[in-house]
Every structure is written in C-alpha cells, then in structure tokens.
Amino acid sequence: MSRSAIFRKIQAATSEIKAKEPLPDYDPAMTCCEPKLEGSDLMEVFARNHAAVNGRTMTGVAELAEFLTATGQLHGYCDPVLHEVIGGPLAAAGLTVETVYDRARYDDYQFGITRATGAIAESGTLILDDDRTSSRLAALSPWVHVAVLVRAGIHRTISDALAALGDSPNVIWVTGPSKTADVEGILIEGVHGPGEQIALIL
C-alpha cells in the first residue's frame, strides 16, 4: 500500500472524531506528589525535578549558545517565531540556524528549538502540542531539543496541566531525554528521540 493511501485511510478514520472526552472525576489532592512540590518558586521546583530526570533548565540564550558550542552541536533548526530572540543571537555566536525544517535532511540537524505549551513543576515535564510546536520532527529527531516557554507557563501539578490543556488533539509530555531500558534494567538515553532535553525559560 502506498504512503498516500495509508494517510488517506488515517484521515478518513479520524475525520469522525468530534471532540475529546471530558476528564473523569477524580480528587486532584490524591494524585499529586507533595514531596516533589517542596518550595514556593515554581521555576525552581520545575528545574529541580527536570534535573532529576536528566533534563537541563536554562534561562538565557548566551547559556544555550555556550552549551551548544561546547558540545559541538553547531547546526540546527529554530521556530521562525523564535528566530529574532533566539535564532539570531545563536547565529551571531557562530552557529548555523535554519528556520525551515527540511524533512529530507533530518540527519543534518543537531539541535531543534521549538515552543513548548507549558511545563509541569511536579514532574519536571515539558508539554508540546501541535498548536505551538512548529515542527514535531524538529522537536523529536535532533540530538538536542530546546523547548522554549515563559515562566508563567509552568503548572504546579499534573492535574493543573490537564485542566489547562484545552482541546488540542495532539499533546506530547516530555519528561527528560528519550529513554529506554532492556530486560536487565540498563537505562539508555537518546534512542528514540533527543539525548539532551533543554527547557529554556524566558
């Protein structure tokens, strides 16, 4: 079966989906992990829990440029909406930054910079959805993914994030770099997605 025929079947099957089902009733107080929420500054709580899952939290473009240069990640993609604030300064620091993601050249991109919808302090999770993520492949295929969000986009708990998601049909929760483990429990990062997950909070 051809690729276009497969996509036609998928489109036909999903065209009847009207809306998301409402969330079931539950007690949010029973679902959050209070020890992970210690502290009053949500950004500090998020950064601590993001680091616990091997993510990196940054607050400035200069810090990002230094990290990418030091690790040899010199060529990547940046969401066009973020180019003036992030892509331009990275280019000025000597990195090659493209604002159009060419799917045929996915191996060329060492980093991808996209917008995040938000983050969850409780779990150190980043939220990506199709409304704000300019290119899902740019978020998932380069070795380094940089998710950009504003401080106000950090939700305290998973329950808070669920309540704020809205009607976006495609949402990805990213909790640190891509991980997989074998039957012996040996954890390997960066197998099915980025090996470095950065949250750049502006």
Largest pleated sheet: 6 strands, parallel
Number of E strands: 12
In helices, the fraction of residues equals 25-40%
CATH topology: Rossmann fold
First and last CA, distance: 46 Å
The total tally of domains equals 1
Strand order of the largest sheet: 1-12-7-4-2-3
Cα-based radius of gyration, to the nearest Å? 18 Å
Describe this entry's structure for a reader.
It is a single chain. It contains 6 helices and 12 strands. The protein has a single domain (44-201), classed as 3-Layer(aba) Sandwich (Rossmann fold). The mean pLDDT is 89. Helix 3 (61-70) packs across helix 4 (83-92). A 6-stranded parallel beta sheet has the order 1-12-7-4-2-3, sandwiched between helices. It has 202 residues and is an alpha/beta fold. Strand 10 and strand 11 form a beta hairpin. The protein is globular and about 50 Å long. The longest helix is centred in the first third of the chain and has 12 residues, at 3-14.
Outline the fold blueprint.
Elements: H1 3-14, H2 42-52, E1 56-58, H3 61-70, E2 75-78, H4 83-92, E3 96-98, E4 111-115, E5 118-120, E6 125-129, H5 136-140, E7 144-149, E8 154-155, H6 158-164, E9 171-174, E10 179-181, E11 187-189, E12 196-201
Parallel strand pairs: 1-12, 2-3, 2-4, 4-7, 5-8, 7-12
Antiparallel strand pairs: 5-6, 6-9, 10-11
Helix pairs in contact: 3-4
Name the features.
202 residues, alpha/beta, Rossmann fold, 6-stranded parallel beta sheet, 6 helices, 12 strands
Give a quick rundown of the structure:
The chain has 202 residues and is α/β, with parallel strands linked by helices.
